[in-house]
User: Fold this.
Amino acid sequence: MRCLLIEDDKPTAQFIGDGLRRSGCEVEICHDGGSGLSRATEASWDVIVLDRMLPGGIDGLDILAALRARDDATPVLILSALSSLDERVKGLRSGGDDYLTKPFGFDELQARIEALTRRRSPRDEAERLGVADLLLDTRARRAFRGGEPIPLQPREYQLLEYLLRHQGEVVTRKMLLSAVWGYHFDPETNVIDVQMSRLRNKIDKDGEVPLIQTLRGVGYTIRADG
Amino acid sequence: MASFRHSMVFRMAVGYGLLLLISFALISTVFYVGTAGLLARNIDNQLTATSRRLIQLRAEGGEDALEREIHALLTDDRDVDTEVYLLVAPDGRKLIGNLTAWPGLGGHDNQLVRLQVKRLGRDSMSRLLVYRFADGEVLVVGRDMQDQRDLEHMIWVALGLGGLVALALAAAGAWLFRSQLKQQLRAIHRTTAEISAGNLDRRIDIGRSRDEFAVVADDINAMLDQIERLMDTARNVSNAVAHDMRTPLGRIRGALEDALRSDQPQQKLPDGARYAIGEIDALTVVLDKLLQIAEAESGVRRQHFGPTALGEVIADIVELYQPAAESEGIRIVLQLDDDSAVPADRDLIASVIANLLDNAFKYAGRGAQVLVSVRHDGQHVLLTVQDDGPGIPESLIHRVTERFYRVDASRHQHGNGLGLSIVAAVVALHRGTLRLENAQPGLRVSISLPRG
Assistant:
């Protein structure tokens, strides 16, 4: 995957670049708006990670506007230390696909990039989803593990379906809260963790290969390799 | 009131004065036209009628009849003081009449003129109608205008005096008006100047007045109260931010230093780093929450308001919290008696309920019972969250919505002291009211939101 990173703060750029390279990305880094704009427009990228505030007269939103003016639909993730709702809305309205506020953990960034670059796969519409011996019949809204039906509450079923549609990817608590419950806020009590542990108790019983993994401080992923 | 010209008060005073004078002038004109003017027109009509009658008489009865009639008119004891008759032969000789001298009458044929003549040996300003017969004889019918002039003079004097009185009254009124306004404005000006100089606690003295100025002054005072409150809050917040940031920063620094200095840095460093990340995340949460409060207080999120069924949102959040509650042995009782929609930001309302549940879980603890209810209350929807925990000491209850304020001053409980500040800010954003009270046992938080 080819990723263009436009970030003026060198330690931050290095930290993100190293992380992305470790996960197998081909990364190019620009440290100012001018070079960022020319690199963004002259080559093709799978994703652009863009700092909102850049030195040199051209800031992140200008680059974004230039891209979108050329009908370039490359997914763009905006990084910013400005976290107010207004700034967020401005960033997304200018054509950003996602908006991440500094400081952030690398796993969170990676989860967002994955979500942005994920090709629309047959999984999105599939009626039967599965990982290992876990199977989901989306029409009947029922789950089976090793052929045995698992009784699930509606929310548990929705959680599992969301995880399976994003299998192999990291999903954060915020993503789950907004996808399954439709709310955007940060609960202080670990409500999502408790919901997940209930689901896990039903899916990964003793003696079975655990499928749901917890990524500390970030979220969850569902995978076959355990 | 630096410059007269730029003084609104002066302009208004002058304007009212002018208005008064103009209306006086209009009334005077109407009065004058209705009295002196009417008299003058009556005189003219009378002269025309008499002249016409005499001309007719001469045409019917000849010269002698005319002279006899004029003689009769001059001796009938009526209008002796004012009547003017004169008949002049074509050669300029006076045939009959009471004028002793008259200026040339040529050029005034058949029209009404005002001329200086001598009547019975006395100067007289008269209104005259001159008619020249075909044979050159001239008939003059007229009226001495002295009484009319006296009347006009009297009217002019009266109007002039009235005008002067009106002018004086206008000036006095304007002055009074101006000094009144000035006095009122000076009180406001003095207070605002003092406030600019830094005395934020100064307020405009309203007294018992209920006039427009009192209303404005009252508004200004309310605004000043609000500004002072905000400034106090800002001051407290920056102090609290400094404290609440420095403490975790100190802990992070200590942990990292400790890890580096340790005998086995290789083993301790990962723990130190993990600890630092955790603390930094907590700090970020604090910053985010402060921003949320600032955002709610700024009112920008009102743009995102839409009709929101409170009951539905509350049911969702209670359902979200249910498993966490069960694992803590906490029972949530939900009472939904109203499902009407209010204009609100759905996510903010959700975060308010979540905050209140977080608090109830944290402070009422294991085995608690939390009652969440929504009911209809006139023009409002009333939402209450009540736990059966220890509540909050009565003397501290009014402080818990302050940022960073924590009842547990030693801060044993995990938290940042911002939860109820967010709740208060969001409720204020929705123009609702927030009430906290001890329910004995437990804390009852009531939120009342307007239905539209």
Notes: Residues 8-74 of chain B form the longest helix (67 residues). The domain at 8-152 of chain B is CATH 3.30.450 (Beta-Lactamase). Chain B touches chain A at residues 277-278, 280-281, 284-285, 287-288, 291, 294-295, 300-301, 304, 316-317, 319-321, 323-324, 327, 346-348, 350-351, 354-355, 357-358, 361-362, 415, 419 (CB under 8 Å).
